[in-house]
Amino acid sequence: MATSRWVYNKATGEFLRGGFYEVYYDDATEGIAEFPDSNPFPDRRLQRYDAVTGLRSATPEEVAAYDEAQADAAAAREVSMNKAMVAVAFLCERHRLGRVLTPQERQAIRDELKSILRTL
Q1: Which residues make Cβ contacts (< 8 Å) with residue 13, sequence separation at least 6?
Q2: Residues 7, 52: Cα–Cα separation, whole Å
Q3: pLDDT in tens, 63-118
Q4: Is 6 within 8 Å of 35 (Cβ atoms)?
Q5: Helices 60-81 and 103-119: angle between axes, nearest 10 degrees
Q6: Which of 19, 25, 68, 106 pairs with 6 at a CA distance of 20 to 30 A?
Q7: Domain C-terminal end among 14, 38, 58
Q8: What are the C-alpha distances in Å from 27 to residues 24, 30, 31, 74, 86?
Q9: Among the residues of the chain, which ranges form H helices?
Q10: How many domains does one find in the chain?
Q11: Which residues pair with 18 in a beta bridge?
């Protein structure tokens, strides 16, 4: 019978990655939890590792933080993948200002686009 191995963050108990393969991890900050074939995949959003019980339910704050991180990652992915949208935003701001944008201004535009995408 196979077992799945999942890497978890020692500080938070959040499951980071894993499955039915050899997982590599940083022993200083991460640990390994094994799960039987009957229930091989922990719910990364709703469950955390606990040294005593193995699994515990995530607190509402942990679920909210997970959801926030997922929304941030999705918005960042969307901005990085949609180069045309970013280019148009840069071009509009460049024409409005009448000069080349600084790196800080470019980053501010990317951050604003991420913020807008999160609300859609």
Answers
A1: 48, 49, 50, 56
A2: 17
A3: 999 999 998 888 888 888 888 888 899 999 999 999 999 999 999 998 898 888 88
A4: yes
A5: 120
A6: 68
A7: 58
A8: 9, 5, 6, 29, 39
A9: 60-81, 83-97, 103-119
A10: 2
A11: 6
Same-domain status, 53 and 8: yes
- Tell me which residue has tokens 């997970």: 66
Residues 82 and 108 in one domain: yes
How distant, in Å, are the alpha carbons of 63, 93, 118 from that of 60? 5, 40, 20
pLDDT on residue 38: 73
Domain boundary among 42, 58, 74: 58
pLDDT score of 19 more than 70? yes
Range of the domain at 77: 62-119
Residues listed for the chain: 120
Same domain, yes or no: 93 and 52: no
Compute the distance between CA of residue 75 and CA of residue 63 in angstroms, rounded to an integer: 18
Check: CB of residue 86 under 8 Å from CB of residue 114: no
